[in-house]
Amino acid sequence: MKFDDKVPIYYQIKTHLYHEMLNGQLTAGAQLPPVRQLAVDLTVNVNTVQRALGEMITEGTLTSQRGKGNFVTTDTTRLAQLKDQLVMAQLAQTYDQLHAFNLTDAEILTSLKQYIEKRGIAQ
Amino acid sequence: MKFDDKVPIYYQIKTHLYHEMLNGQLTAGAQLPPVRQLAVDLTVNVNTVQRALGEMITEGTLTSQRGKGNFVTTDTTRLAQLKDQLVMAQLAQTYDQLHAFNLTDAEILTSLKQYIEKRGIAQ
DNA sequence: CCTAGTGTCCCATTTAACTATTACACTATA
DNA sequence: TATAGTGTAATAGTTAAATGGGACACTAGG
């Protein structure tokens, strides 16, 4: 897997798993691939995978069963909450960034709108 | 200055200076504070400041005059181009991220609209 | 009971970012 | 010409991320 060298790999693995948990590839209660397999898939060391999973277990988005595997939480409320939280963080980051470039609220909205439109044409 | 420990400090300094260059605090041709002063202001080592400036000089957004100081480029076309580039990168990142969470184009737009509205109330 | 498949932990090593410190090079000006 | 203010470079030390390799613990199934 490709990584951005400006962000720790373990952190990008968390983001990657969040995506899979929130777009249907990994549903509530689903079992994750074994850590050793994940390490191979992501072309990364097992310890690095473990660090990402460890944090997600602490956060309550994953559960671990020694000898059996790692699983997505069955708490769908928790998952919905996670999605909200991640979406909000992303929106806030973009808003702050563009606002710092002196774009007004209206300009921020229209620039996103135009970006999406142009993107549709480009594809 | 506060830094996000998930991103290299020198990189955050670049972002910080881009903001100042694109929101009027540092206009075309303006002289930057001395590197030693910047280091103090940002509570960071001179070498770290130098690394950020070095990259910006290579990129052509800053120029350096030994013995005199560092200056914002006078090439306003270059600055406009920089702004476009940074805004686009930010929009692309947000779009990709939210799209990976299974939001449709319409949902992405309305979620940003709602975020901005709620934000206005909260303030 | 044994074995294969899991998660977990530990240790040593490497690498990159950052810091601290010192020295050098150029410019302007008194 | 001397000095203060500037950028630039070099070196050494610290820290955190990531790697590599090994060992241990638990579970399921033959």
UniProtKB/TrEMBL annotation, chains A, B:
Entry keyword DNA-binding: yes
Keywords: DNA-binding, Transcription, Transcription regulation
GO molecular function, a single term: DNA-binding transcription factor activity
Residue ranges of every copy of the HTH gntR-type domain listed in the record: 7-75
Pfam families documented for this protein: GntR
Cross-referenced InterPro entries: Tscrpt_reg_HTH_GntR, WH-like_DNA-bd_sf, WH_DNA-bd_sf
Name of the protein described by the UniProt record: Transcriptional regulator
Organism: Lactiplantibacillus fabifermentans DSM 21115
Upper lineage: Bacteria, Bacillati, Bacillota, Bacilli, Lactobacillales
